[in-house]
Amino acid sequence: xxxxxxxxxxxxYTVDNARPLxxxxxxxGGRVMFVGSDAEARMLANASTSVIDLHGATVVxxxxxxxxxxxxxxxxLQRPNVAGSSSYEEVIERVKVWSKNxxxxxxxxxxxxxxxxxxxxxxxTHNALSLAFPNNPVVVTRVDGHAMLANAKAMELxxxxxxxxxxxxxxxxxxxxxxxxxxxxDNAQSLIARAIPAATRADTRRAILAAITECNRxxxxxxxxxxxxxxxxxxxxxxAKAGNYNLRNYVMxxxxxxxxxxxxxxxxxxxRGPQSALYNGHLWVRAIKLYAxxxxxxxxxxxxxxxxxxxxxxxxxxxxxxxxxxxxxxxLRGGFQMNVHAIGDRGNRIVLDAVESxxxxxxxxxxxxxxxxxxxxxxxxIPRFAKLGVIPSMQATHQTSDMRxxxxxxxxxxxxxxxxxxxxxxxxxxxxxGTDFPVEEVNPLLxxxxxxxxxxxxxxPAGGWYPEQKMTREEALQSxxxxxxxxxxxxxxxxxxxxxxxxxxxxxxxxxxxxxxTEILGTMVVSTWIGGKRVYDAK
Length: 539
Known about the structure:
Layout: E1 5-8, E2 11-13, E3 21-22, E4 24-28, E5 31-36, H1 38-42, E6 50-53, E7 58-61, E8 63-68, H2 70-77, H3 88-98, E9 108-113, H4 127-132, E10 138-142, E11 147-150, H5 152-157, E12 170-174, E13 180-186, H6 189-193, H7 201-217, E14 220-228, H8 230-241, E15 248-254, H9 262-266, H10 268-272, E16 275-277, H11 278-281, E17 283-291, H12 321-334, E18 337-342, H13 345-361, E19 370-373, H14 382-388, E20 391-393, H15 396-402, H16 406-414, H17 421-425, H18 444-453, H19 473-479, H20 482-487, E21 505-508, E22 525-530, E23 533-537
Parallel strand pairs: 1-6, 2-7, 8-14, 9-10, 14-15, 15-17, 17-18, 18-19, 19-20
Antiparallel strand pairs: 1-4, 2-3, 4-5, 7-21, 10-11, 11-13, 12-13, 21-22, 22-23
Helix pairs in contact: 2-7, 12-13, 15-18
């Protein structure tokens, strides 16, 4: 038995306790064949083996983003990107630059504004956007995806007026006159979205391929895709079947509606049942994604008590608690995993209560249900994750993005249960880490840096924000490799460089496990490999 590929003279962090560090790796048939010394690995090579001298470079298992939106990233790459804008004026200017060749009447869709970055922290109104684009409907989604800003033309085409009422789980921000301001939060976004023309299949396919290329460039070999519809998943299957899908995607079905109702019955992926490792391990479809509440940045996260900086508001419930409980029971019976977006302490408690109730009705060990974000948790609820077997799927860069204003939202007491990685880890749970891209940047090294420093890319604040909640470097690497694998029932196939598992790995030009914190973000991805195949090369 000879290897197809041998890597020599490296520093290989395997994330396998049986052999945590090695200098050589051998691959055969897309899987890890051997991990060990250079001398031993050379014995597995012959004339047809590709042998690569790493010249001391670092190798880690392929990074996996445990909460991402693949199509959302692809769309962002092809639309106006206003992330990081320091003012509303900058948002408008960026959209202008992007849309200079757009014809009158065509829709312009962008994403990324965050009023918390502006000198005025108030939500914008549509007026300036409407003046800049009188002849085009324009919709710019907030960075978190939980609010959108629409101009007058877009609201006109959507039939929005002062008489339009707030839907359940949604909020229309209004002017003093009662007219909509242009900002629509959570479920109210559907009032505008219904008027936006659907993307063509060709556009969606193009966006998906662009997103995969972007993932590979940053060292990602896998993602957990947090909520896609049947049409998008069908394109994933088409690409994977043709061998044109350089990613391992653990797909969560978007909320299918009430169990047993026509929308749920029409979903072909529910009818098929849980699907794992399709197309040589490139596609899993065995999870359902629900929403409990909104987001903290747009004050839609559901809190047990009102916001400290808006005492008349306690957030929004995007779904009824009963809906989550019924789907928890249905998922336990059908063998699906249930993953629920919950950010506020009330949202998290509702999900934990739903899981506890469902497990009494349908007892099942090792269900691995997840709460996506688990961002602000009541201190008394933190131990319930381990007790119920619920996995907190969290995003380290949400903490570094939010830390400048999060305490103003929830106050000095509730903040102790926010972004509380160490408090959760100490109960015995694992934390699969992600970015929620395109909410945050794709780069997993930003995730690693945030996890171990609790600092932003400028290394602020000194010592880290609530530094007692930091992860160790070993935990941070696990949170991006083996813990996502466990959270997706993939730990026997992915997550570590262990003989028999898929040969997914990343070559880095620096040793992120040893260099100073301030040098982590200077690390470059040299190459990305999936199943022993190079899918990205920096050269």
